[in-house]
Amino acid sequence: MLPTPTLRHFCDIDVDLGPVREMGQGRAGRRRIIPIVGGRVSGSGISGRLLNLGADWQTVFAGGLAELDTRYAMETDDGALIEIVNYGYRHGPPDVLDRIAAGEDVPPERYYMRTHARLETGDAAYAWVNRMLFAGAGARRKASVHISLFAIE
Hints:
eight-stranded antiparallel β-barrel
């Protein structure tokens, strides 16, 4: 029998967002670019700040499903640079999605926002993140996103 993966809380990420850039209808759905302009990472094994570079390249499908495709970077408090690639989905009842789009704080249990993440660095002190996978749960706010990442062990 194979081992059952477990989840261990790794960190919380508070992502500051710039204004949404609407690209219009693409091949698969409505395309949007949401700049990632800063934020904070905090956890038992890692902490630092998000850099003002990166974005969420979203596709929103006809039924309201948002495909989240992000790439951004953090600088740890001790100076290491770590790339974060986070991919996932957000969906929920139409009235809830409308409230989120209007900038309301909607309780995260009212909708689904889950991701999987890969981190990468060339810094020897954090090389272990290159060999881990992470699952995330998130919440969208007016100008930010909160994500809790869990190491898959």
